[in-house]
Amino acid sequence: MADIALIMAAGQGTRMKSRTPKVLHQILDTPLVHYVISAAEKAGCARTLVVTGHQRELVEAVLPDGVEKVFQPERIGTANTVLVAEEALAGAEGKLVVLSGDVPLLQPETIAALLDACTGHAMVVLTAHADDPRGYGRVLRNEYGAISGIVEEKDATEEQRRITEVNTGVYCFELEGLFDRLRRIDNDNTQQEYYLTDIVGVCVDEGASVGSITVADASETMGVNSRVQLAEASRVMQRRINEAWMTAGVTMAAPELCWIAPDVTLAPDTTLLPMTVLAGATKIEGDCVIGPDTRIVSSCIGAGSVVDSSIVRFCEVGERCSIGPRAYLRPGCVLENDVKIGTSVELKATRVGAGAKIPHLSYIGDAQVGPDVNIGAGSITCNYDGQKKHETRIGAGAFIGSDTMLVAPVEIGAGAVTGAGSTITKDIPDGALAVERNEQTIIEEWTKRHRKETH
Ligand code: UD1
Ligand code: CA
C-alpha cells in the first residue's frame, strides 16, 4: 500500500502581514510549500495532496505537476482541513502523513520514521522537546507515559503550559476509520475551531492506539509564522544545503555568503566565492570558480569555467568559458567551449561558437556568432527596429572592429572583417573587409585659430 501525504496550506498566515499567502513566501528562491512537497516525495509518498483555501489560485499555480489539489472552503480548523480530503481519498488504504505547508525544514528521514512508527497504531504524533514551548500545542501523557491528548496553548491550564513536549503538527494516520473520527471532533474551544489535535482524545476514548515519536533536532519542525521566523528558517536551510555541498567536494570561501537553491547541483572542485546566489535548477560542473558577487538562475555552467561578478539567467555555458566581470547573460544564450564574455557585455538569445571572444562593452542580441569570432570593444547588434527583433549572423573567424554597429538583419561572412566604427547594414561576403566611415577631414592649425576666435 502506497503512503500518501496531505499538506495543509489553506491558512492565510496573518502574522506574515502580507498580500502573499504564507506558503508562497520563499526560502532560497523557492516557495515554502515546495520544501514540504519535496520532503514527502523523498520519504517515498506515492501521492501528495495539498489543501488550499486562502488565495487558492495563487497557491495552486505554483504546485508542481502530479500534486493533487483539494479545496477547503472555510478555514474552520485543522480537523476540517483533513476532512475535506475525504472524497479525494475515497477508496485509498494505508497510511496518511499530515504535514503543514509552513514547516519547511522537516527532513524526509523524519517523515519516513513516522510512517514506520505508525504500524500497529491508529495514529502517531511527531513531538518535540522545546526550550520555549510558547505557541505550540502541549502533549499530555498518562501515568504510563502513553499520549492521552494534545491541548492548544490557548486552552491550556497554567500547569499544562509548563509542559515542554510540544505537538509539531506532523502526524501519521491509518486511513481506516480516520474520517469517522474526524467527524466526531467539535469546535468547543476558545478559538471555536475544529482542532485536528483533538483526534488524539477521540482515539483514546475508542481504545484505538496512539503512538508518538520525538524528533531529534527540534529545529526541523520549526513553523514559519512570521518574517522573523522566515529569516531564521532560511538560515537553517542555507547552512544545511551548503554543508551538504561542501561535504560533496565544493569549496566555499564564506558559506554564510553563498545562497544555493534546493534544486541546484554542483560538481566537486568547484569554488563559490562570497555573494554568490545560485537559483532554480542551475547545474555547475567541476573546477569552476563562481563569484564573487554573481547570480546564476536556471543555467548550466560547463567544467572549468569562471563567472566573475556577473548575472546569468536561463543560459547554457560550455567548458572553460570566462564570463565577467559584470557581464549580463539574459535568457536563451548558448556558449560553446572556450568562449570569453568580458567586462560589461550584455548577451541575449545568442549562440556563441567555440573559442569566440566578446571581451568588452558590447550588446549582442538575437545573434549567431561563429567559432573563433572576435568582437571588438563597444560593438553592438542593432537587433530591434522599434517593432520587431532581427537576427545577426557572424561567420566563423570573423573580426568585428571596435564600435561596429551591426544593423540586423545582417550576415557577416566567415573570416570577414569590419572597420572600427562602421555601421554595417548590408551583408558582407566571406573573407571581405567592410568599412563604412566618412573620410577623415584635417583642418590645419584649427586649435590656434579657434582659440583666437573665442578670446
Ligand atoms: C498547530 C497545532 C498545534 C501545533 C502547531 C505546530 C492545531 C489545532 N494546532 O497550531 O498543536 O503545536 O500547529 O506548528 O492543529 N490550516 C488550514 N486550514 C485551517 C486551519 C489551518 O489549512 O482551517 C493550515 C495552516 O495554513 C497551517 C497549518 O494548517 O499550514 C497549521 O495551522 P496554524 O493555524 O498555523 O496552526 P498553529 O496555531 O500553528
Ligand atoms: Ca503554524
Helical region count?
9
Give the termini separation. Answer: 97 Å
Main β sheet profile: 9 strands, parallel
Strand order in the largest sheet: 14-17-20-23-26-29-32-35-38
Q: How helix-rich are the residues, as a percent range?
A: 10-25%
Structural class: alpha/beta
Low-confidence stretches: none
What is the count of β-strands? 41
Percentage beta strand = 25-35%
Which whole number gives the mean pLDDT? 97
**What ligands are attached or bound here?**
uridine-diphosphate-N-acetylglucosamine, calcium ion
Global geometry: elongated
User: What is the alpha-carbon Rg in Å?
Assistant: 31 Å
How is this structure best described in words?
- The chain has 455 residues and is of the alpha/beta class.
- Helices cover 18% and strands 29% of the residues.
- The protein is built from nine helices and 41 strands.
- Strands 14-17-20-23-26-29-32-35-38 form a nine-stranded parallel β-sheet, with no helix packed on it.
- A hairpin with a 5-residue loop joins β8 (138-141) and β9 (147-151).
- The mean pLDDT is 97.
- Calcium ion (CA) is lined by residues 102, 223, 225.
Key terms for this structure?
single chain, about 450 residues, alpha/beta, 9-stranded parallel beta sheet, 7-stranded mixed beta sheet, about 20% helix, about 30% strand, elongated, binds uridine-diphosphate-N-acetylglucosamine, binds calcium ion
